[in-house]
Design a protein that fits this description.
2 copies of one chain form a homodimer.
Chain A lengths: L14 H10 L5 E5 L4 E3 L7 E7 L2 E6 L5 E7 L4 E2 L10 E4 L3 E7 H10 L1 H25 L4 H16 L4 E3 L4 H8 L3 H13 L3 E5 L2 E4 L2 H7 L2
Antiparallel strand pairs in A: 1-8, 2-7, 3-6, 3-8, 4-5, 4-7, 9-11, 10-11
Helix pairs in contact in A: 2-3, 5-6
The structure holds a DNA duplex.
Chain lengths: 221, 221
DNA sequence: CGGGATTTTGATTCCAATCAAGTCCGGTGG
DNA sequence: CCACCGGACTTGATTGGAATCAAAATCCCG
C-alpha cells in the first residue's frame, strides 16, 4: 500500500484562517512535501513552525511509553496544525498519505498579530475551533460503544472530507482505531457489521458508501 | 450533601487572562452566585455571556438523548468558561458547589479585542490553553484502563486545585465518572484499590491524601 | 437517633481486547 | 500471465475488565 489515493476536495472548517496566510503572501511560508508515513515533526521537538495542509492528510498523535499511539486529529487541505502554545511539541505530526504543506514561522506570528487585528481575530477563531474539535473528539471517546464511535467517526470524516454519500478514507484501520481508542479488530468488525445491517457498503477497503444516513446518525447516538 | 466545602486556593492556569477583565474594569461584568447544582447556562441556549470563576467549581457538560452525561471540564477560580465560537451553547454549565462567577457580555469582546491588542493576545492564549486542555482530556479518555484514568484525573485535579499532597475533591464520584467515561462503581472501586495498594489514603470521601506520588504517576502511564 | 442520599462492595453479565487463523489485495519477479 | 509474497484487513475463539444488577455501609443533616 504505497500510493493510496488521497483526494480531499475538502472545504476545511478553518479555510478562512488559512486564507490570509496562503493568499496574501505566499513567500511567507515554505512549501514542503512528505511521503506517506513520513514524520513532519516529532513530539518533544522545538516548535518553530506551524503548518497549513495544501493537499493530502496529516495526523497529529501522541506515543505512550508502552507503544500505544493515540491520534489527536486528522488534518485535511486548508487545516492549520502545529500551532500550540509552548515551545515544545506536545504531539507528533505525520503524513497519512503523500501530502503537501506550507510551513510558517511561529515567531513571525506574534509580531504580525499585534499589528494586524484582522489576523489576530482569525487566529482566535482558529484556536476556538480547535478547542471545539478537541471537545468533540473527547465526546467521541467518552462512554460510547464501538458502534457509536465508528458511526460518529464516519459522519465527522464525511463532513470533513466531502459531502456526498461516498466516503473515501485516507487512513488505515489502525489509524481509525488509534483515533477512536479501539483496536483494529473492533473497527473492522464494526464496519463489517454496519455493512451487514445495510447501513453502509464497502466496495473497497478505503471506500465507504453510506446507504442509510439517517440510521447511521441514529447509531452515532 | 448540601454544603460541600469547596475551597480552591487555586492558582488557575488562565488567571493571567482573567486578570484583565477582573482588574481593570470590574463594572464591566456582573457578579453572580449559584448554589450547588444550579444551572448557569443550558446547552442550546443563546450564548450572550462568558464567565470567569471567582470561587467554587463549575462543570461544563453535555447531555445525551439517553440520559448519559459527559463532563467536558471542571473550572476553578480564575478559569474562563462559556467562551466558544457560535451563538448557541454547545454544552451546559452547572455549579459543582456553591460558587461565584462574573459574567461578561460576549459581544463587547469583539470591539474591545480590536482596540486592545494586549487583550486580544490574552484571549488567544486562553483559547490556546483551552485547546490544550481539551486535548489532554481526550488523551485521558482514549484507550486507557480505569486505573490510568483515575490516577490521571487525581494528578490533574491536584495540580489544578492546589499543590500539596492533600487533595480535596469538590465533585462527587458521579461527576468524576462522567468526566472519565466510567461508572460511579468503577471509580469507587478504583479509589479503594489505590488505597489498598497504599498509593493514596481516603480520610474522608472528598479528601485524598497522596502517599506515593511517584507510583501514582506511574499508574497514570 | 433516624432517614435519605451517596458511596462502597459483591455477583454476574457483556462488550471489546486479545490471541490466532484466515483472506484479500497490490506489487514483484519468474 | 501467473505464481508468489507481504502487508492490510477480516473473521473466529477465548479472555478479561468494566458495566450492570443488587445489596450493604457510610455519611450528613435534620
Amino acid at each position: 500500500m504505497k500510493t493510496q489515493s488521497c483526494t480531499n476536495p475538502s472545504l476545511a472548517r478553518q479555510a478562512i484562517l488559512a486564507h490570509s496566510f496562503a493568499g496574501a503572501e505566499p513567500q511567507m511560508g515554505s512549501v514542503q512535501n512528505f511521503v506517506q508515513d513520513r514524520e513532519i515533526f516529532a513530539q518533544g521537538a522545538a516548535a518553530e513552525y506551524f503548518y497549513k495542509v495544501v493537499s493530502g492528510v496529516v495526523r497529529t498523535c501522541k506515543f505512550l511509553v508502552d507503544g500505544r499511539r493515540q491520534i489527536d486529529a486528522f488534518h485535511v487541505a486548508g487545516d492549520i496544525f502545529g500551532l500550540e502554545p509552548g515551545a515544545e511539541r506536545p504531539l507528533s505530526a505525520e503524513a497519512v498519505c503523500d501530502c503537501t504543506v506550507i510551513a510558517y514561522r511561529k515567531n513571525r506570528l506574534d509580531g504580525m498579530a499585534v499589528h494586524d487585528k484582522n489576523l489576530s481575530w482569525e487566529l482566535l477563531s482558529f484556536a476556538m475551533s480547535g478547542m471545539e474539535q478537541a471537545r468533540e473528539h473527547s465526546f467521541l471517546l467518552g462512554r460510547r460503544s464501538a458502534v457509536e464511535k465508528v458511526a460518529g467517526f464516519l459522519l465527522a470524516w464525511a463532513e470533513k472530507s466531502q459531502r456526498d454519500s461516498m466516503i473515501s478514507l485516507a487512513m488505515s484501520r489502525q489509524d481509525i482505531a488509534d483515533y477512536l481508542g479501539l483496536t483494529i479488530e473492533t473497527v473492522s468488525r464494526t464496519l463489517s457489521q454496519l455493512e451487514r445491517d445495510n447501513v453502509i457498503d464497502l466496495p473497497s477497503v478505503r471506500q465507504i458508501h453510506v446507504l442509510n444516513l439517517e440510521l447511521l446518525e441514529d447509531l452515532a447516538a
